[in-house]
């Protein structure tokens, strides 16, 4: 009996993740072949850096800088894009699709900004686009939503999906050190980029949330649609207060859907990225360091939690190679292009209105900074009361120096955010309040 023909892979980008893909394909070639029924072989790599030794045996693999030649090569069956960015990556991915080749990518920014164009082109050409590694690194969260939870109406998604910020928040809580100190350590360890803005300002998480919302709810969103707040401005005292109140602080990507109207039309959804107080007893609160986790609630299955390494050479490569195996199976069956990449059929993906932030209703953590004088606390609570906002708990630190500003830490009763914001605007204009108030929302349903 003759051996089945190999499925041939071309790799665009030979950086950290590309190197991991080459290692996994070589290391696990035998087990992959037993699962697939045919060899999955890396035959060509394109990268601008041809001199750097990645510690990978490239015998039998063509390695040059000709990315377009790789995409057009008839000896390449599947194209993997790991070069990043949204310029050349977009052009090469569309060229591969136009050439009738399925593609695998880990590029969440590209899909968040140009996903519709790419998915429409792939549907028209009848080829697959796979992108498991774009969200959660090695966690198979997208495949779980698309396949394992396909019978459910997804009700909510709560994700810790940026390892840099989760590491930084964990370290700030553990050591009591300030943001800048922990950021410098994260950069030295390779957890944060020289320009960390995409991570610490929540942009990376927002890119990923657009994909999660599409797969969970069939919602077409762009990054510009999603209210996004990062972790700058969180101080060590906020972690102390959260601990005393029974919470931990995490940067969450949150998506929730409401009920359908009488005609069966889906209503507005919530989608936002924000620092959040979550109960210290919840499973997500246990996720520390650079790890990722996503909690998905479905109407039939209830709440499920997916946990693992959200970045890194081999965890991310695991997701990329998993996509390669899935596409190779489709090629062998002759059914390429028949799996909806975003879980919903293309015509079922629709623009969804977002619930305005002002309409959110819930509890909040508030950090005021005020001069330590009699009646200041009464002034603050008086303004909150004028706007119908009650106070559940108060902690006042550093009493005794009447010339100094001290933090006043509160948990509010449930309130409409618009009312809370109006109250804070008025409070921040009080003469004894010496710094802008910090608000962090609380999520109880975890």
Question: Can you tag this structure with a few keywords?
Answer:
Dihydrodipicolinate Reductase, domain 2, 35% helix, Alpha-Beta Plaits, 446 residues, 9-stranded mixed β-sheet, alpha/beta, 14 helices, single chain, Rossmann fold, 6-stranded parallel β-sheet
Structure description:
There is one protein chain. The chain is an alpha/beta fold and 446 residues long. The protein folds into three domains: 162 residues, Rossmann fold, CATH 3.40.50; 169 residues, Dihydrodipicolinate Reductase, domain 2; 83 residues, Alpha-Beta Plaits, CATH 3.30.70.260. It has 14 helices and 19 strands. The protein has a nine-stranded mixed β-sheet, sandwiched between helices. A six-stranded parallel β-sheet has the order 3-2-1-4-5-6, with helices on both faces. The protein is elongated, with a radius of gyration of 25 Å.
């Amino acid at each position: 009996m003759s051996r089945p023909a190999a499925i041939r892979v071309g790799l665009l980008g030979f950086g950290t993740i590309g190197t991991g893909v080459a290692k996994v394909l070589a290391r696990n070639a035998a087990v992959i072949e037993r699962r697939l029924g045919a060899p999955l072989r890396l035959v060509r790599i394109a990268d601008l850096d041809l001199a750097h030794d990645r510690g990978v045996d490239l015998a039998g693999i063509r390695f040059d800088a000709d990315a377009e030649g790789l995409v057009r090569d008839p000896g390449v069956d599947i194209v993997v894009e790991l070069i990043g960015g949204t310029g050349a990556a977009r052009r090469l991915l569309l060229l591969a699709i136009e050439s009738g080749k399925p593609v695998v990518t880990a590029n969440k920014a590209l899909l968040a900004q140009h996903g519709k164009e790419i998915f429409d082109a792939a549907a028209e050409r009848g080829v697959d686009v796979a992108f498991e590694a774009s969200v959660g690194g090695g966690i198979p969260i997208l495949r779980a939503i698309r396949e394992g939870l396909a019978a459910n109406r997804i009700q909510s998604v709560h994700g810790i999906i940026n390892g840099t910020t989760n590491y930084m928040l964990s370290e700030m809580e553990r050591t009591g050190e300030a943001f800048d100190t922990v950021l410098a350590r994260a950069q030295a360890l390779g957890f944060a980029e020289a320009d960390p803005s995409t991570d610490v300002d929540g942009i990376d998480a927002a890119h990923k949330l657009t994909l999660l919302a599409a797969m969970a709810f069939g919602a077409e969103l762009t990054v510009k649609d999603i209210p996004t707040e990062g972790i700058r401005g969180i101080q060590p005292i906020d972690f102390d207060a959260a601990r005393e109140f029974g919470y931990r602080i995490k940067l969450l990507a949150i998506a929730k859907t409401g009920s359908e109207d009488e005609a069966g039309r889906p209503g507005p959804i919530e989608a936002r990225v924000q620092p959040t107080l979550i109960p210290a007893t919840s499973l997500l609160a246990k996720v520390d360091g650079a790890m990722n986790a996503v909690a998905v609630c479905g109407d039939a299955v209830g709440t499920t939690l997916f946990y693992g390494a959200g970045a890194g050479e081999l965890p991310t490569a695991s997701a990329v190679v998993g996509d390669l195996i899935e596409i190779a199976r489709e090629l062998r069956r002759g059914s390429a292009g028949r799996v909806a990449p975003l879980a919903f059929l293309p015509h079922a993906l629709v623009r969804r209105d977002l619930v305005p932030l002002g309409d959110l209703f819930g509890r909040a953590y508030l950090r005021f900074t005020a001069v330590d004088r009699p009646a200041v606390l009464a002034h603050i609570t008086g303004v909150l009361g004028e706007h119908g906002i009650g106070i559940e708990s108060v902690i006042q630190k550093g009493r005794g120096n009447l010339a100094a500003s001290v933090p006043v830490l509160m948990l509010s009763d449930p309130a409409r955010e618009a009312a809370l914001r109006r109250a804070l605007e008025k409070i921040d204009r009080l003469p004894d309040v010496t710094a802008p108030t910090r608000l962090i929302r609380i999520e109880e349903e975890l």
